[in-house]
């Protein structure tokens, strides 16, 4: 089993979900950006944006590989 973090713009959400499913069914642990419910990044505080960014970077650090969807 490998830990794989998917990176990319959420305009490719459908593709990222399909890729995550395929990789999971091959026995991998797949991490993705958190889908946040607020419609606009500007509605988050600076602290929240920094925390979200830091969490995604931590996912990348613990991964065996990253896959960029574009």
General description of the model:
The chain is α/β, with parallel strands linked by helices and 70 residues long. The protein has two helices and three strands, in the order E-H-E-H-E. The protein has a three-stranded parallel beta sheet, sandwiched between helices. Strand 1, helix 1 and strand 2 form a beta-alpha-beta unit. The protein is globular, with a radius of gyration of 13 Å.
Show the helix and strand layout.
Layout lengths: L2 E6 L4 H13 L3 E3 L14 H17 L2 E5 L1
Parallel strand pairs: 1-2, 1-3
Please tell me the overall pLDDT: 92
Question: Rg, please?
Answer: 13 Å
How many strands in all?
3
Question: Looking across the biggest beta sheet, what order are the strands in?
Answer: 2-1-3
Task: Report the major sheet.
Answer: 3 strands, parallel
Q: Termini, distance in Å?
A: 24 Å
Helical segment count: 2
Q: Per the principal axes of the C-alpha atoms, what is the gross shape?
A: globular
Keywords for this entry:
single chain, 70 residues, alpha/beta, 3-stranded parallel beta sheet, 2 helices, 3 strands
Offer a quick outline of the entry.
With 70 residues, the chain is of the alpha/beta class.
């Amino acid at each position: 089993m490998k830990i794989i973090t998917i990176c990319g713009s959420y305009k490719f959400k459908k593709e990222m979900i399909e890729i995550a499913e395929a990789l999971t069914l091959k026995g991998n642990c797949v991490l993705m950006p958190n889908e946040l419910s607020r419609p606009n990044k500007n509605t988050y505080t600076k602290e929240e944006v920094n925390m979200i960014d830091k969490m995604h970077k931590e996912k990348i650090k613990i991964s065996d590989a990253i896959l960029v969807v574009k």
